[in-house]
Amino acid sequence: MKKLFLLLSIGCLLAVFQTSCVNDDDYSIPNIVDPSIDIKPNITLDGVKQMYTGSLIEFGADSDLIFEAYVVSSDETGNIYKVMYLQDDPTDPTQGIAISIDATNTYVKYNVGRKVYVKLAGLYMNALNGVLTIGGLNGSNVGRISEFTYEDHLVRTPETMMVTPKLITSADFSPAIHSMLVKLEDYQLIETQLGDAYANYDNTFSVNRTLVSCSGGENVVMRNSGFATFKSQTFPEGRGSVVAVFSAYNSTNQLFIRSTEDVQFEGTRCKALFEENFSSVTDNQKIELPGWINFTQAGTRDWNGGEFNDDKYAKFSPFGANEPENIGWLITPAIDLNETTDPLLTFESATAYPVDGFQPLEILVSTDFDGTEAGIPNATWNVLNATLAGPGNSNFEVVPSGEVSLASNISDQVYIAYRYTGNSADNQSPLMQIYNIKVFEK
Amino acid sequence: MKIKFITFSIFFCFMVSFMHAQSVIRGVIVDNETDLPLKDVQLSVKGFTKIYTTNEQGVFEIDNLPIGNHMLIINYEDYLNQNIPFAIKADNEELDFGIIVLERNFEDDNDLSVITLTEDDLDENGSGGTENISGLLQSSRDAFLQAAAFNIGQARFRVRGYDSNQGTILINGISMNKLYDGRPQWNNWGGLNDVFRNQTYINGLQPSSQIFGGVLGVSSFDTRASSYRKQTKVSYSSSNSNYTGRVMASYSSGLQSNGWAYAVLGSGRFANEGYFEGSYYDAWSGFIAIEKKISDKHSLNLTAFIAQNKRGKSSPNTQEVYDLKGYKYNSYWGKQAGDDRNSRYRDINEPTFILSHYWNLSDKASLNTNVAYQFGHIANSRLGFFNAPNPDPTYYKKLPSYFLRDESNPDYANAYLAYENFRDYGQVTWEDYYDINMNRYDVNGNRLENSLYYQYEDRVEDNLFSASSILNASLTNDIILDAGVYYKNLTSNNFAKMVDLLGGSYFIDLDPFADPGKMQNNLNDPNRKVYTDDEFLYSYDINASTLNTFAQLQFQYSKIDFNVSGSYTNTSYQRDGNYRNGTFADNSFGKGERQTFNDFGVKAGATYKITGRHLILGNIGYITQAPSIRNTFANARVNNTIIPNIDSEKIATGDISYYYRAPKFKGRITGYYTKYQDGIETSFFFAQGLRGDDSDFVSEMLTGVDRRHMGMELSLEYDVTSTIKLKGAVAMGEYIYDNNPNLYLQSSSAEPLISYGQTYIKDYKLSNGPQNAYSLGFEYRDPDYWWVGANANIVSNNYLDIAPVLRTENFFLDSEGLPFNDIDENLAKELLRQEKFDSAFLVNLQGGKSWKVNQYYIGFFASVNNVLGELYKSGGFEQSRNANYQRLKEDKGRQTPLFGPKYWYGYDTTYFLNVYVRL
């Protein structure tokens, strides 16, 4: 009896050791359910954007519209915050769109190149500060989709493709490329910001960094967040390519990078042979820049400085003077092009109140001008072919001049003149503005 | 024996002749095993109220018995009752029962299993199960201490508010208190109840024969193989608290004629889900003791035991979370492929070997020498995350209160979505983390294999060598000398270990919370790929040793006993870092400064016996105590920095008691006063929402802390009849901070150690359990071997743990360091008022019965705690997040605060049922 008892006890002990009836380890890898499995897109991004009429669009809770797109942005570094940018194709995009989401660290699931299906039921679309955005409702405008529901609207598929940024130049800058991943080549940080970091060391404000082109393209602004992990790193000081999401704040274009890898400035900086951005002119005052000649040949209106929204420029506007002739010369100081082989001139111009068929501005070059006001009529002035703002452009639309070759005007003293010829008595007096004059070696 | 009997009967004849012509019965009561007479055994005759007791020789005599049939009822604590029918047939009859044998009954001993070891530490990174003091007290016979252990231990009551590190636990003369925090790790001998029943408890400053001890006393377990009677026992238990089932089987041989004795025990405790959601319990234990009595003078015993314990932990929650999810909610678990998986488990296994030598130097002196070795691990797991959304389901930004935080512009839509989201699931989303880890790509579409979510353990692997040598000698008939030497040498390896990469292939060893450029956890091996079971994040060793000697004289005279004791301790710690931490590159790798402390203690006590019934007992002591390892280093994971102003704590203590002892009634009233000075308090927690949305592990230190514990205790025990006993206990205490100590913070991811100056916490109450308790219980022991008991208790004056950071000068400064200009003094006082929990009324029931079937004893023991299912807060802490006046004012003004306190609630009704068979 005693032995039996003993055996029983040992037996039950062994039983306890053998069968661990508690599951506390050996968890199996779960089967990941693909949420996109039954979802079929039935409209393209282009089709969705065409539904926009200029004011808030409500897709409706019953909408069955689904479009397919690829993620091109990432919030991993915190530079892009609570917004996700999508485009319709990873390598050959035609349309981009911004999605406003109330969540952070979305990159863990919505990585760059991830294909998503966007279900529009219950969402809204409108332009936010000039950029077409889809989101939830905030008051009477588009707001952020709740963190609790955005994954239901942005359905993740198992596919990730490699995204090739679209190679563009500043001539392509337009709302048509909003929210797409683009690549600009041959840019560098503007001289006055050399030494700055991506954002500010000691605060969390967002900061604009200006990039200038070495190939005659337009300047463009990159906007960096004061919360980005890279904010204190020094901005690269070389020259090269930048990959970014192309966006805007109303009429100002803005680039958003995903990380510092997007900025590849390996080359040495290009130096302008001559540069003038009119930063020292005073609004509505006759331009008096050192070395420049500001000669009013006819009429009482001069080339004045202009300023609007931190932008400065040169302007000529004889409107209201009521004079039969208004002629103004704005001539650069002498530029030495002797060392160059293929010098280019670039600038930007804008017009307002243009007159059909009338272009008051001419760009002239001379290599034998003596540099005095009296010598102007005696010099040989050749007309340069530049693209100028004119009747075909909207008011104040900035038009790049394109690359204007000075190859046939190489000498050690080259002068470039901006001559306005108008007639304010006869309403031939549109406003002309000049920005960012640059002469550089190609 | 016969001679004695005759002597007695002759003596009695003379006595009786002077009394009434009534009959007398007498006898001798002895112990079944040892044949030794038993003193103070209670006897009564059924129908008569008078209780008689046996004397030193075990002899009893009952007189004045009328003619008739009677039943003699014999009652002795820990022994099986006996009822002997007899008849008095004539006047002046003398009936001699001769020798009556009583058998020891272990089953009536309340079981430590009944006590819910508080699984939830008030320190979320603590080692769990070490704060409880019930196990210390369970063997005491004092009604007050029994109530403290069994009735109100569940409400976290602590005797005199002392921390568990103030009580010494000895097993075979080896101290089991951990050097890390001074507390005993009960899980080291969990599940071994049936071989850990030989326990003696010395209360408070009273002298222990083995060690100087702390202010809470000394609890000593004897696990010598020869101390167990010959027995085989199997038991099964069922419960609904920490574990749901337990199986235990043991066999002990008792001391055999060849001088050998051995004992073995094995047990398992398990639960798929314990009291809290997702809290599994998986434990098994084994024990073996072998003793050889070499001669009459020498005996050698080896005790070895192992207790493997792994359980899923449960979270403290804010009231908002409890209201949304109920009182069993646990935020640590989530579903994975149909299973419930808890992200935070605690896994302990620290096998212990103790070799003891017992030497009877003479019949007046003995020397006990012990050596012990303990190794193993304590591991606590948690989820880690790198540059990814916080996995805590109760992260403040995921709860409805977050969206209602701006009372002028509440976001109802999101608040409702948050509510639904939390209500519908609200647990860890394991499957999501696998999905993320297994499907990540870089910007060029290349697969990324490093995990952003992972599960890891904070692991401590100790190698502890201990030795002790204790001398006890009766110098004269009245004077006893106790002396001893204790030595410990510890090498403690501390590191994080990767447990599960959750579908990823590796983790890059970087600190996600450090500043960019300082993220390396080990500059000596940067950007290392961490695979499963690799060490990572931090790694350091602590080398510690303590040497303690004590000497004590006990004087026992007829009218007065007194004792005086002294002790000296040398303590030494040194940290040796194995990683060069990126944030603390100059101060983390290699050996740090060695810290040495020299401490002493003196205590004296006296018992004045006014009469045999009235006693006065008083003790005073002055003790200095070295800081524990935990309270020496500012943040041992990342640097070698020592806590500023480090010094030994000083304890001045005294108590005085009056005892009343009568056959039917025992009572005690005690007043005590203990003052602590220059103490250190540390807290290590994961702070969320620092510097915006950052998170970080933060170490908070208070130095120069003074505390005062004072109060009274009342203990009452009344034998209404020989079968009914009433017990009462009252504790009224006040435990407070007695000064304004200095506060420092050391972040794990940012330099430097910051001083916050003084924290104004004087007169705030300590958060160490209910400071008042009232207990009333009764027990009925039926002669038919069954018993029931019930007790009703009120615990009150339990306080929320305050956040010292909120009571520094910083509280009144804005982010620029300038004082707020709109401070309303009364409002500030109100904001900083310490929350006092509601009183709790707890009713407990116990009972048991045993049968003898052939030579087997079969029985059961059952208890139900908190019968009324009272819901009560048992502990909690303020969050430190709202670190200044303006933010606290804002948060408390909200209907649901974002950073309200986190609470633990006591268990509602739980039961424990134990069924055993013993041979």
Tell me what you see in this structure.
The complex is a heterodimer of chains A (442) and B (919). Chain A is mostly beta strands and 442 residues long. Chain A has 3 domains: 45-160, OB fold (Dihydrolipoamide Acetyltransferase, E2P), CATH 2.40.50; 166-270, OB fold (Dihydrolipoamide Acetyltransferase, E2P) (Beta Barrel); 274-441, Jelly Rolls, CATH 2.60.120.200. Chain A has helices at 2-18, 45-50, 150-153; strands at 57-58, 66-71, 83-87, 96-100, 114-119, 124-128, 131-138, 141-143, 154-160, 166-168, 181-189, 207-213, 220-224, 239-249, 252-256, 263-267, 272-276, 293-298, 304-308, 311-316, 326-331, 343-352, 361-366, 382-383, 399-400, 404-405, 415-422, 431-441. In chain A, the strands form 4 sheets. In chain A, strands 1, 2, 3, 4, 5, 6, 7, 8 and 9 form a 9-stranded mixed beta sheet that branches. In chain A, strands 17, 19, 20, 22, 25, 26 and 28 form a 7-stranded antiparallel beta sheet that branches. In chain A, a hairpin with a 2-residue loop joins strand 19 (304-308) and strand 20 (311-316). The longest helix of chain A is centred in the first third of the chain and has 17 residues, at 2-18. Chain A is elongated, with a radius of gyration of 31 Å. In chain A, 41% of the residues are buried. With 919 residues, chain B is mainly β. Chain B has 2 domains: 2-102, Immunoglobulin-like (Sandwich), CATH 2.60.40.10; 112-385 and 455-918, Maltoporin, Chain A (Beta Barrel). Chain B is built from 9 helices and 46 strands. In chain B, the strands form 8 sheets. Chain B has a 26-stranded antiparallel beta sheet that branches. Chain B has a 4-stranded antiparallel beta sheet with strand order 3-2-5-6, with no helix packed on it. In chain B, a hairpin with a 4-residue loop joins strand 21 (352-360) and strand 22 (365-385). The longest helix of chain B is centred in the N-terminal third of the chain and has 16 residues, at 2-17. The two termini of chain B are 30 Å apart. Mean pLDDT of chain B is 88; it is low at 5-20, 106-110 and 112-129. The chains are: A mainly beta (442), B mainly beta (919). Chains A and B meet through helix 1 of A and strand 12, strand 13, strand 14, strand 15 and helix 6 of B.
